[in-house]
Amino acid sequence: MRSFLSYLIPPLFIFSDVLASDYHEQLNLKPLPQSSLLASFNFRSNTSLSQFEAHNFRYFPRSLGQILQHVGTRELHLRFSLGRWDAESWGARPWDGTKEGGTGVELWAWLEADTEEEADLKWLTLTNALSGLFCASLNFIDETRTTRPVMSFQPEGDHGSTLDNMHLLHGVLPHEIVCTENLTPFLKLLPCKGKAGISSLLNGHKLFDASWQSMAIDVRPICPLGQECVLQIEQTIDMVLDIERSKRPRGNPIPRPPPGHDLKCNASKPYHSGDTCFPSDFAEGEDWSLDRIFGKSLKGTCPLTDPDAPPVCIHVPERRDIFTTPGASEMKSPDGLSRCYQVPSEGDFSMMLPRMSREGDNAKTVADETVQPETPLLYAERSFTGHGQDRGGVQSILTNPSPDTIVEFVYMESLPWFMRIYLHTLQARVEGTSGAKDDIVEEIYYRPALDRVRGTQLELRVRIPPASTVFLTYDFEKSILRYTEYPPDANRGFDVAAAIITILPSTSPGAPPSRQKTSNLRTTSLLLSLPTPDFSMPYNVIIFTSTAIALAFGGVYNLLVRRFVGADEGAEVAGGLKGKLTLLVAKLSAKFKGAKGKVE
Amino acid sequence: MSSSLTARGLTDRSTTSEFEAKTTSNNAEGNGDNGITNAAMVTTAQPNGLGPGSTTAKLKSPPPEQQSHIVRRSLIAASFWLLVLCLGIPIWWKTTTIYRANLPLNQMMNWADGKSCSPVFPIRIVIEAPSLTEQEAQSLISITQNALDAMHDFPGHRLRLEAASQTSLGGIIAPHDHENNALIIRLTPGDIATFEPASSPHAHLPIFEITYPPNSKPTPEAKSSQLATYIAAQLRSTFAEEQAILSYFLATSTISSDQQPQGSHNRIDESLSKRMTRSMKYSGTYHLTFSLFTSGSNPSSWDIDSAINQYLRPVLDMLKPIHNFTIDTQVQLYAVPGVQSQVLTKEDLSSFINAAEWPLSPSIGGAPTINFVVYMGNQTIDLYSGEETSQSWLVPQWGSVYLLSPPAATHVPSEFLKQPVLTFASHLLSLLGTPQSGSLPMRLSTLTRVRSVDMLLRASSSLGSLARLSLALPSISIPPSVADGVAKSIHHLELACSNLGSTKSLEHARIAETEAERAFFEKSMVGQLYFPDEHKVAVYLPLLGPVGVPLFTSLVTEFKAWKTRKL
């Protein structure tokens, strides 16, 4: 796994090699347990800063470049994510979690500005412009959803002295549903536009059908030693496909139960017989091919890439059989855990991974089909506790699975203002290690919410001892919103953005390479239900109070201005409709009185 | 209210008794509590006697009401009405009224009708004639001026001839630089061989060189001279296009017909109107985007920077006093045009740009974008109309497209781009609305004047629309920012009108136009659309109905009682 990660994350010394060729793309495939497949698409293009400032765009997309120039953005990170990464079975995240965001849309950027107000204005322009470019509601990232993280994010590019007047702003839209209309502009930014190269595999039907997917755009300046600074844009798409689901033909996508003779049964069950079957889903690996999984084949290579860099790599054990279309050449990595393919520049390319028989002479095991995923540094989950419409609580469970290393990380929550947290209820409880102290929270940065102005920002620096679990809990109060502040589907609930966990690089000198980098992790987003009024209320209130006031006023006023005289002294009332009505009322009330009297 | 009703219902049925009469008289004192005690007493009184149906009782007239009671009752009614009128209505008015800033409607309508400013350009033309004597020059000028005035039928232009200051016609003319002169006519005597005057425009300066035969020198006494007629005819043809454009603008604007030029200029030239609709809306800055679209993967880079510097920069430098330009370039591979056919017909050209897939989004920022697209593919244009070249066409108000067949190499050198960039330069000029005839400096000075008139008319018509809108929708709110914008716009319009023809007036007209547009498109003015009158009725009626009816009836009763007392 370590070697795979080093493949995925090019260490800094590779950059000099990358600069020679201005555009680079690679697809990394990795079969995961439970018949899933992780596909990581990576596209990277560079432009020299002088060309960028002269507005000459070649590989760098002009539409994005103009926005960045207009608002003075030094570094930009944009994420579109959907689904949940199942860390229990899939292991560590691709790219160490640095190229994924919380569910929905996440954006953070370093803007060049002299004052905070200027930075806010530029941020507003940036979100509006990106909203138009990516067909996403990024313009809803207003001041209540914007935070200025203190400990969680560090710039990735080389900024030199300009770092002093750079402002980091971060915004999340957890409610945003990522879909095809976000993929199309994403592909438009690529030099080969999904027409050639690995991007020709991307298609909205498969991407948004995935169990988990994340689209990322990172723009950062990079200054290699002794060379001109370049601006790098890196676009990444990671997705976990359910192989069986993806193999369904486009024309007949409805799942149907397989016929009896195709059922894979778990023969170890005591009741297993000819007519009873306990289906075993993942007992035998699936066979799959690139064109069936993605619905189309790879169309040649993008001619702008370095012809020596292999565009497709797959991370499987050496014994796994793989067949490819003719013309492609295979290169095995020395550790035997991955191989890469040189794709013919014209014509279609596909690869086929047949089913490996678990029986017979040449029986294969699961270990021959997939590489065992690496254990992540930290497991994190977060949920609501409590009940009722008034108060609630949040509990985050953070587990350090490693038996011997301490994990230090920053836990950041940016909560909406209508979720008022009680910081004094914040508690961290450690379980697992005997005799562990509970004061594992080393540093707290807290920026309280202001109603309708900004949300809560909470950053905690935590150290988890080895093989232990931390329960982080706090309580909050739900506020009542104004009538117009409720969204149209108020009873659905309000999305609370994912907590962002930044695992800090290990400081010990002997740490393995995977621990020497910052890695990220995000919890799932939460759905908070707030007390929701009946939305016809204002009209009811208007009519009710009006009627009450009118009744009281009419009565009092009539008593004040009428003259009361004896019944025999008043004018004759018996005539006409009014008189008849009065008589009727009198009769009815007399009857009523009589009945009442009888009862008494 | 219902309790008092029952009370009265019961009183109706209860008959004569001293006790009853006393209670009613008590009640007449106008105390509300008494009414209720009265009711209680009546109910208690009921069982002692008189069953239902005893309506045969004799009616007596009530005792005369005390004067103080009558006065008190009138005072009560009056005080309620006073409260409603002096407190209720003002509060209601204050809280529900829509803020409408005062707009100078008359002034705005005057601008829109063209009553405030008639666009007249004083055009100063200087005649440099070093070879002529002062007197000769003077007489030549007066004859030419007469000839011009005689043939001139367009009121928008006032051509004024002057002698150049070197020949010094006394201190009448203030010393002026070249900028104030629209045109300089340089007269040089030709040799004996020249029989007719000949003219040639200067390439880079607004100078008109006229070579005349020596014998056509005017004499001071002559009423007409061949040279003078020639100069007048030349000037007229020089400014003919500008006049046509100006009269086109005046004709298409909302300015009323009496301000429009009469006669032959009144009809709108077909080709001129086509050309005018092609040109972009005026702006101080334009973004120029040069895009290389390739049908396949080759070529992927081009030397556009040096091509622009070589072939386009001179034109941009000339345009600098009027427009600023920012330039960006991009390369896009695998671009599929909107039309797939090999040979493009005239109809195909309009759908050639694949707006859905090509990243030609307008530049960020306020300025409009002009797109110049070089498409490398093997498509050709079918030449059945000779209007355009076979490789490029102009897309009105958008930009221009140039088709090139792809070279073998992956890099396009700048020499290869010479023809496209030169074509783009000429397309740029026509997209900016530059007139087609004359030398480039002349065309640009014409452009300044034409654009100022255009801006002036646009601003005026925006003001007029705003004035009409505020009159037509009485419930629309007009925030103070709108009034502010209108005031600024009118101020700049006046400034622009007072020195028409200069670059300053163009600047003022531009500010006036943006201010007028901003005032017209003020966001908060749209809010009223969401609050219709039916809505108000639904909210007010439950309150105002039941409260208003007793108030009104009491007023009417009091009024009737007062009238009967009077009689």
From TrEMBL, chain A:
Q: Check the UniProt entry and state the signal peptide residues, or none.
A: 1-20
In this record, what's one Pfam family? Gpi16
* Entry's transmembrane regions: 537-560
Which keywords accompany this UniProt record?
A: Membrane, Signal, Transmembrane, Transmembrane helix
Source organism superkingdom: Eukaryota
- A GO CC term assigned to this protein in UniProt: GPI-anchor transamidase complex
Among the GO biological process terms of this entry, one is: attachment of GPI anchor to protein
InterPro entries in alphabetical order: PIG-T
Q: What is this protein called?
A: GPI transamidase component GPI16
Protein species of origin: Xylaria hypoxylon
TrEMBL record, chain B:
The answer to keyword ATP-binding applying to this record is no
Query: According to the lineage, what is the superkingdom?
Result: Eukaryota
Where does the protein end up? Endoplasmic reticulum membrane
Q: Does the keyword Endoplasmic reticulum apply?
A: yes
Q: Where is the composition biased (Polar residues)?
A: 1-58
- One BP term from GO: attachment of GPI anchor to protein
Q: Which residues form a coiled coil?
A: none
The UniProt transmembrane annotation reads: 75-93
Keywords of the record, alphabetical order, are:
Endoplasmic reticulum, Glycoprotein, GPI-anchor biosynthesis, Membrane, Transmembrane, Transmembrane helix
Q: Name one Pfam family in it.
A: PIG-S
Q: Region (Disordered) spans which residues?
A: 1-65
Question: Which cellular components does GO assign to this protein?
Answer: GPI-anchor transamidase complex
Per the record, the major location class is endoplasmic reticulum
| InterPro entries attached to this UniProt entry | PtdIno-glycan_biosynth_class_S
Q: Give, as in the UniProt entry, the pathway in which the protein acts.
A: Glycolipid biosynthesis; glycosylphosphatidylinositol-anchor biosynthesis
PANTHER family with a match to the protein in the record = GPI TRANSAMIDASE COMPONENT PIG-S
Give the family from UniProt.
Belongs to the PIGS family.
Q: What is this protein called?
A: GPI transamidase component PIG-S
Lineage of source species: Eukaryota, Fungi, Dikarya, Ascomycota, Pezizomycotina
